[in-house]
Amino acid sequence: MNTVIKLINFSVISTISLSLNLEAQAISIGYFNSSVYTFPNDAANLRNVLTNGANTVTDFDSLEASVWQQIADNNQVIVIPSLSFDSLAPDLSSETQAVISNFVDNGGGLLMSGEVQEVIPLFNDVFGFSFAEDFWAGSTLLTDEAEGTIFESAPGTLGSPLQTTTMALNSLPPNSIVFYDNLLNSPPNEQNSTSVFVTPFGMGNIAFNGYDYNNTEDDTGWAEATTLTVEFIARETNVESVSEPSTIIGLMMTIGIGFLSLFRKVS
Prior knowledge:
By secondary structure, the protein is of the alpha/beta class. The protein has one domain (about 30-245): Rossmann fold (3-Layer(aba) Sandwich), CATH 3.40.50. The protein is built from seven helices and eleven strands. Strands 1, 2, 3, 4, 5, 6, 7, 8, 9, 10 and 11 form an eleven-stranded mixed beta sheet that branches. It is globular, with a radius of gyration of 21 Å. The chain starts with a helix and ends with a helix. Residues about 1-25, about 240-250 and about 260-265 have low confidence and may be disordered.
């Protein structure tokens, strides 16, 4: 009987793990792609990175709360590219800001990329943080916090192409996960900063990548870092997971077939 139970447990765990792994391979992304607020070239370059694989990307450009809600309901991650034309935060209604906040609070992931001075107002206004800009112009190094995460395979150094910006480390909430900073390569008394970090909020996460994607020839590791950031915050969410009825039914059928097969072998 113990053998049967062990085999059943292995079958169930293996089936669930397979289902979750298959789910994780395809990430659904809502992409704020507005010519009013972004440079088309920057937005197109980042979008190409996001679609490199099995990810599905849905573009939208509206500020209406109903549109953001639809995007939130159907995607694991929302990505906002470098805001180069106009600041977005002051133009978002309180209803739209609430949709964004609730999306992350309930398990969604939000990534903002590029110009930190445009990222800070949205992060601070929507989530109540106190992020601050830093003016570090050099490269940033992978930190020890990458150990045990998917960032273990990330580039050891991220370059600093033109328009790469950073966030002041001392302005981050204490539970933030810093993947790249300048602690080991900045001069004494220099303010320390980060170019890639994730901050938990409720059941979800907000994330920042400091590259604006103006020129992909100066990538210097940023495409891989961005891909890993999106995957990290998608893995940490519970938006779609295995809660889809069709997924649950398929999973239970697979487990049931496994049970029958195992009992036949031991009978």
